[in-house]
Structures are given as C-alpha cells and as structure tokens.
Amino acid sequence: MGRFVVGIERTAHTFSVAVASREGKILSDVREVYTPPEGSGIHPYLASLSHVKAAPRVLRDALLTSGVAQGDIDAVAYSMGPGLGPCLRVGAVVARTLALSLAKPIVPVNHAIGHIELGCLLTATEDPLVLLVSGGHSMVVAFSYGRWRVLGETLDLTLGQLLDQFGRHAGLSSPCGMQVERAASMSSRFIPLPYTVKGNDVSFSGILTTAKRLLDGGEGFGDICFSIQETAFAMMVEVTERALAFTGKKEVMIVGGVAANRRLARMMELMTRRHSASFHVVPLRFSGDCGSQIAWTGHLAHSKGVTTSVEEASTRQSWRLDQVDVPWRE
Ligand code: AMP
Ligand code: MG
Fold first, then answer.
1. At 35, is the secondary structure helix, strand, or coil?
2. What is the CA radius of gyration of the chain?
3. Is residue 128 reached through a cis peptide bond, with omega within 30 degrees of 0 on the bond before it?
4. Are 4-115+287-329 and 125-286 the same fold in CATH?
5. For ligand 1, what atom is nearest to the CA of residue 176?
6. Beta carbon of 257 within 6 Å of any ligand 1 atom
7. Which residue of 179, 212, 224, 330 has the fewest CB atoms within a 10 Å radius of its CB?
8. Is domain 125-286 classified as CATH 3.30.420.40?
9. Which ligand gives the minimal distance to the CA of 180?
10. 269-304: b or e for each residue (b if 16 or more CB lie within 10 Å)?
C-alpha cells in the first residue's frame, strides 16, 4: 500500500510535477514556466512544445527530490481541464505513460478545484467562501450539497487576463500581474474607469478598453495600473461581500495567481473583518499553477475511489468546477 500521490499540472503556461503525502505534506514541486515573447500572450501550441521539452527533466527532478520509492506511490493524478487544448494533451500523455509504467491508477483532477483544495490545506480552512482569481478564473464559490457552487463570476475577461492584456498592450511580457502591482503601488492618482457589476457577476472588458485608450492618449502607466486595481478589485470585493452575507460562511480565502496581489488581499481583508469572518490567502509560492494542487486533490479524490482508465484519461478544455462531484467533502 502506497502513501504518496504524484500530481501533473499543465493547463496553460506552467508544466509542473509534485509529490504529496496522504498527510498533506508537499515533498517536491518542480515547475517550468513558458514565457511568451514581449507584447504577446500564450500561444497554446508553442506552450505545449515547451512543455514537451520540459517534461522529462521536471518529472525526473520531482520524483528524485521527493525521495519517494516507486512502490510507495498510490496514484498518478493529472489536471484533466479546464485549460488550453494542446497543453492539456501533453499532460494527459505524460500522466498515462507514468501511470502505465508504474502500474498505478490514474486520477483526473479539475484544475480549479485543485487551487481551492490546496488553498484549504495550506491555510487550514475547512469550509471557506472562496475567491478564485487567476489567468483562467474569476469566481466566487462556496461548497454546498456535494459540489462547489458559483455565486458570482466574470462575464468576459478574468482578472488575470485584464492585468495581462493591459500589461501586454504596454509592451510587457505575460504574465504581467506582478509588474502591474508594482507600478500601481507607485501611484495614488485615480482615473475613473467603468465599474460593471451585473447581479452578482462582473465584467472587465470596459476597464480594459478604456485603460488601453488612456495609455495610448499619454496617461501614465502607473496611474492607470492603480486605477485598474482599485476599480476591478472593488468590483470583486462587492460580489464577494454579497456572497458572504448570503451564505453566512465564517472563512474567506483567496486562491489563484492573482491572490499574490497585496492590494487585493488588503481590500478583501477589510471587508471580511466587517463580517466577523476569518481571512486567508494561499501562500505566495502556491498561488500560481503548480503540481501540488493536483497531487493533493488527486489524493483526496483517490481516497474516495475516483479513478479513470488509461484509455479514458483524456482532456476537457471547458470543464467547469460546478460540474464536478466532490465526494471527499460530503
Ligand atoms: P494562474 O493562472 O493561477 O497561474 O495565475 C496567473 C495569473 O496571476 C496571471 O494572470 C498573472 O498576471 C497573475 N498574477 C501573478 N502575480 C500577480 C500579482 N502580484 N498581482 C496580480 N496578478 C498577479
Ligand atoms: Mg490556475
């Protein structure tokens, strides 16, 4: 009987392999991030080629540094979706090959649920209201009756896409969130931008169009970054607050790549305190995509018998988290 799960992540820019123990210890987490040329976004095919090249080294390093013997591995988990088709396919092939060569079961994991479960493990939260903000998601979700339920989400761009697309327009290379945060921290000049909340959903495309126009018209990059953050983050705080009042949850957690942003965390924390709920942010090293989110969630799923055959270990590009049964939380 084994005690460890290998997790393979490659939904977009990151190819990562990690090993987690049943007790929730991360023994290794090796990553290789594809960086597109300045001014352009992720080209799915080129990203997948870079993943093919990185796969042998990342896999070998993750298995060796974990110090885990092959016989102690329970299962091989991989992110089945959602994500970019060519990148997902590389990961599925690597996972199938590894599972066959180790003669271990294969466990499909939803990438978004991976962010949430790893966040819960690392922040010791049990039943949080979750703000999932990344390159692929901008959602407020809570667990109820066997599934994660969406209580608010973006109608167009994600928060990560907003920051990345604006940064690229300014000539930066993706991902740009960190540079946008740095530039914003040097300004306090607020330029009004479209604040669009519809019901409990948000729309960021008006902010992006206006911000690009302002930059082309000669406004300062830092001032625009500051204004984007203040506007877009306030929208996310508003919908999260409404969901918190509605659900009465006692914990709020931010996960996903944009969780690295200190201004977002500060705004969300102030709101959470007013509702006497505890506030949590996934640790910086684990906010972006990583094998750990897949290894740990793979363990939880495997412990409830979730596996698939090698033949059916395929990919699902648009696999929403509210379509996934979560037996380990019932
Ligand atoms: P993920 O898809 O979870 O790997 O998250 C990647 C996204 O996180 C990209 O859109 C990045 O621009 C964004 N991101 C990373 N660091 C920061 C930051 N400090 N502030 C805002 N966004 C960030
Ligand atoms: Mg992600």
1. coil
2. 20
3. no
4. yes
5. 12
6. yes
7. 330
8. yes
9. 1
10. bebbeeeebebbbbeeebbbbbbbbbbbbbbbbbee
List CB contacts of 43: < 8 A, sequence separation 6 or more. 36
Kindly list the domain boundaries of the chain, sorted by start residue: 4-115+287-329, 125-286
Task: Render the burial of 194-228: b for 16+ CB within 10 Å, e for the rest.
Answer: eebeeebbbbbbebbebbeebbeeeeebbbbbbbb
Per-residue pLDDT of the chain (330 residues; tens, 9 = 90+): 569 999 999 988 899 999 999 999 999 999 998 888 877 788 888 888 888 888 999 999 999 999 999 999 999 999 999 999 999 999 999 999 999 999 999 999 999 999 999 999 999 999 999 999 999 999 999 999 999 999 999 999 999 999 999 999 999 988 999 999 999 999 999 999 999 999 999 999 999 999 999 999 999 999 999 999 999 999 999 999 999 999 999 999 999 999 999 999 999 999 999 999 999 999 999 999 999 999 999 999 999 999 999 989 999 999 999 999 999 997
Residues contacting residue 90 through CB under 8 Å, at least 6 positions apart: 10, 15, 48, 51, 52, 55
Q: Classify domain 4-115+287-329 by CATH architecture.
A: 2-Layer Sandwich (3.30)
What whole-number distance in Å separates Cα of residue 254 and Cα of residue 264?
A: 9
Q: Which of 321, 293, 330 is nearest to 17 (CA)?
A: 293
Compute the distance between CA of residue 130 and CA of residue 243 in angstroms, rounded to an integer.
Answer: 10
The number of the ligand nearest the C-alpha atom of 184 reads 1
CB 80 within 8 A of CB 319: yes
- Nearest CA, atom 2, ligand 1: 135
Ligand 1 contact via 112 beta carbon (within 6 Å): no
How far from each other are the two terminal CA atoms of the chain, in whole angstroms?
25
Using alpha carbons, select from 93, 87, 73 the residue that is nearest to residue 6: 73
With CA atoms as reference, report the closest residue to 292 among 2, 17, 15, 3. 17
